[in-house]
Amino acid sequence: MNAIEGEFPALVARLAEGLVAREALLVTAESCTGGWIAKVCTDRAGSSAWFDRGVVTYSNAAKHELLGVPEALIAQHGAVSRPVVEAMATGALTRSAARYSVAVSGIAGPSGGTPDKPVGTVWLAWGTPVGVSAVCAHFSGDREQVRAATVAAALRGLLERL
Predict the structure, then answer these.
(1) Among the four 13, 31, 51, 154, which has the fewest Cβ within 10 Å?
(2) Model confidence over 114-159: pLDDT tens digits?
């Protein structure tokens, strides 16, 4: 376990506390993390009190079929983009009982990067009762480090929005 992964239990504890206090549920919509955000959330005993579900939509077809991301949006902007990740966060909320969502789509590597979207590029979006917001992050390291940094950023972003 690296230093970032060591932070996960404390971040999830704070997240659980905040969601329980608001009587709110969380849904995750994950691509590049492959369910890792949902995993660290459900590692915590009692997570069923605040975690509704997680959806892994690794393929573009899954993003469309499970989250309702328009195919045209993916074709126009690519899966790793603000419009797509915002649509993922919104789709996760509309297809669940949750009031908070987090969605991630990125290029974890080692291949798949382009000059415009190099390896380590990740879009993250959070859905809340007041709307959806998104940021683009650029993480360094190998595939595992990029994915771990994405999980940490997703959890921190949720905490900031509670």
Answers:
(1) 13
(2) 999 999 999 999 999 999 999 999 999 999 999 999 999 999 999 9
